[in-house]
Amino acid sequence: MKKIKVLKDIGEFGLIDLIRRKVRREVKYPVLVGIGDDAFAADLRKGRSLVVTKDMLIENIHFKNAWATPFEIGYKSIAVNLSDLAAMGAVKPLYCLVGLGVPGGTSVDYVDKLYTGMLSACKKYSLAIVGGDTVSTRKDIVISITLLGEADRRNIIKRSCAKPGDILLVSGPFGDSGAGLFLMEKGSKRPSSEEKYLIRKHLLPEPRLKEAEKLSKSGKITSLIDSSDGLAASIKFITQESRSGAKVSLENIPISAQLKKMCKKYGNMDPYNFALNGGEEYELVYTAKPKDFKFIKRLVPSVRSIGLITSIKGIDYYLYGKKKEFKKNGFEHFR
Amino acid sequence: MKKIKVLKDIGEFGLIDLIRRKVRREVKYPVLVGIGDDAFAADLRKGRSLVVTKDMLIENIHFKNAWATPFEIGYKSIAVNLSDLAAMGAVKPLYCLVGLGVPGGTSVDYVDKLYTGMLSACKKYSLAIVGGDTVSTRKDIVISITLLGEADRRNIIKRSCAKPGDILLVSGPFGDSGAGLFLMEKGSKRPSSEEKYLIRKHLLPEPRLKEAEKLSKSGKITSLIDSSDGLAASIKFITQESRSGAKVSLENIPISAQLKKMCKKYGNMDPYNFALNGGEEYELVYTAKPKDFKFIKRLVPSVRSIGLITSIKGIDYYLYGKKKEFKKNGFEHFR
Question: Fewest beta carbons within 10 Å, which of B88, B138, B201, B304?
Fold first, then answer.
């Protein structure tokens, strides 16, 4: 039997060489110094602002190797960071730095596939891996991604500029990723095609970069965030940062047929609970003046208006006009 | 007895609030969007190149809570990243993003002190913490730092441009940090003042930003790296990237009196072994034309010339003209 090659066999510098060869490809932007030096260096285009995001994924907290392939883990680690760039407005993704912590007993093949997944997402969104750090851990894998992008500063949209009277808009659907996680936790052995769709939404999310670009460039939106901690948390963040509140009409939140079907199958669960508190969902949540809704609808036909920003703080949820309470408020670490 | 407050009690968003309040201070550079949004955004000064570095520190691999205070761990995590900027030339540190992974049972006070240490290093080197990510881990603490700096592209010095005939120069001394680690591993109960010095060199390293700036702006150095993986590894990297080799005269490597004393005390150990393979030492290793040595010596009086770059690949070590072999080649993860 062939012995499986692990990181201990090739060492850190062997791994860096492997990564370097793997990512060496057409780099679309000017790089002064890339992989293989102490740091990365590049020029930005004239008059463009730098946008930087950093998200960490921890094994057995954010992902489990029993549930996801290394390709999927790699792909998602890039996608969730791209979603943070989308949440800032019309940002052009440029460069990616990958911090990777893995135990010495990890197979070289595993790391290779992880990078294949990352590079697949990078290719799709024109991103170049240009540096990072590789270290050993005792047990769990750690993936720390830093993305650099550039934007016209007029197209950067903050969380904090929603105004009372603004309408609350979303892409969607919501709840699919949380439902996919629920199904994997349940360990459904023979998932139906609907269940496969929900699991896939959890494992391979797509960032809403194009929609974010269109919306931000239109000049019609007043605040913008993604729904990575769940829709409820996004609404909370926008209202908190904008020192306002919101009224939300649950029936207007886009919910997929697949989620509805799953909720019925497993004992009449509430799809709105998944939609609000699911988390790890990378849709857009934003605000605009009511008069601009038609314009936005023409620009992004899938937009849904789910509520109103109010001057009174706090968030109230209504189902067909009747007030509804939810216990949780999105996903939060440590809790 | 007062219950110690842990992260579980305040949750992720409570922690982010705490960090935000703690780091809210005079930000010296223009920031478009800071902590509390999906990403960070800023403008660079006109005509300046962006320099980015990313280094991860893992508990029980890079640091142990039994050996270092949270202040020291925080300080060092920033210092080692600053050293990577120094290793790129005359880079002005600007912004810092902190990725922090901690178990939910960690005390709030611990995290607070960790940030006090980080902020102390940030203040010393005019760096602003502007964003990051906080996540939970199951066991070990993970600190992932991304630093952004800017530089005139003419003052960025790579590893790869050393030429045969160049002299090999260093700051120093070398070996102190490795000796400090050795002493902590040994668990010396009543360290002498020399031993305390060595341990301190391990726990609170200072990046050589000023020297790197002077040297790079002089236009006289041909390659530059720091010695974070040990002096031997630095020489290996410079020669590999520059497709050359080196001859090193061990007796010219600066060694502290404290290291010499410790080596005698513990059974005549070889100080050059600590100097070459110690690692976690943040000195500068660089090359220049022999004719420029005098100029450099006036600029940075502590400079030492320890060898020569050769066209023949491989690195040979000599002690007073006699060849010497070393088994290890610096610190390497996974090995």
Answer: B138
Q: How far is CA B225 from the centre of its chain?
A: 11
Which chain B residues touch A13 with a CB distance below 8 Å? 332
CATH number reported for the structural domain that contains residue B244 in this entry: 3.90.650.10
pLDDT of the residue at B44:
85
Residue count of chain B: 335
**Whether residues B260 and B201 fall in one domain:** yes
Q: Higher confidence at residue B96 or residue A331?
A: B96
| pLDDT tens per residue across span A70-93 | 999 999 999 999 999 999 999 999
Q: B160 lies in a domain?
A: no
Question: Are A56 and B153 inside 8 Å of each other by CB?
Answer: no
The closest of A143, A53, A102, A134 to B98, measured between CA atoms, is A53
Q: pTM for this one?
A: 0.92
Question: Does the distance separating the beta carbons of A43 and B50 come in below 8 Å?
Answer: yes
Contact A285, A242 (CB under 8 A): no
Written as one string, the DSSP assignment of A88-137 is TBS-EEEEEEEEEEE-TTSBHHHHHHHHHHHHHHHHHTT-EEEEEEEEE-
Cβ–Cβ under 8 Å, residues A151 and A89:
yes
Q: Are residues B118 and B187 in the same domain?
A: no
DSSP state, B127? -
pLDDT of the residue at B36: 78
Q: Which of A43, A62, A225 sits opposite B49 (nearest CB)?
A: A43
Distance from CA of A268 to the nearest CA of B (A): 30
Chain B contacts of A239, Cβ < 8 Å? none
Mean model confidence pLDDT for chain A: 92
Domain count, chain A: 2
| A2 domain-assigned | no
| Residue A332 placed within a domain | no
Question: In this structure, are residues A65 and A57 in contact, taking their beta carbons and an 8 Å threshold?
Answer: no
Tokens of B24: 């809210």
Domain with B254 in it: 167-324
Do B151 and B171 lie in a common domain?
no
For residues A107 and A196, membership in a common domain is answered with: no
pLDDT for B149-180, tens place per residue? 999 999 999 998 999 999 999 998 999 999 99
Interface test with B, best of A38, A45, A111 (most B CBs within 10 A): A38
Q: Is position B161 within any domain?
A: no
Same domain for B147 and B203, yes or no, is no
CATH of the domain at A52: 3.30.1330.10
Question: What's the whole-number mean pLDDT along residues B275-293?
Answer: 95
Identify which of B11, B138, B241 has the shortest CB distance to residue A332.
Answer: B11
Whole-number pLDDT of residue A189? 81
Contact A32 B55 (CB under 8 A): no
Q: How high is the pLDDT of residue A35?
A: 80
Same domain, residue pair B281 and B201: yes
Only one residue has tokens 């921890």, namely A58
* Cβ distance of B53 and A40 shorter than 8 Å: yes
Buried b (16+ CB within 10 A) or exposed e, B284-293: bbbbbeeebe
User: Domain end: A125, A155, A185, which one?
Assistant: A155
- End position of a domain, from candidates A155, A183, A209: A155
Q: Distance between alpha carbon B2 and the CA centroid of its chain, in Å?
A: 39
If asked whether residues A145 and A189 sit together in one domain, one would say no
Dist CA A318 CA A163 (whole Å) = 21
The pair of structure tokens assigned to A27 is 């780099």
Query: In this complex, do A61 and B148 lie within 8 Å of one another by their Cβ atoms?
Result: no
Q: How many CB pairs under 8 A join A and B?
A: 234
Which pLDDT tens digit goes with each residue over A289-308? Answer: 999 999 999 999 999 999 99
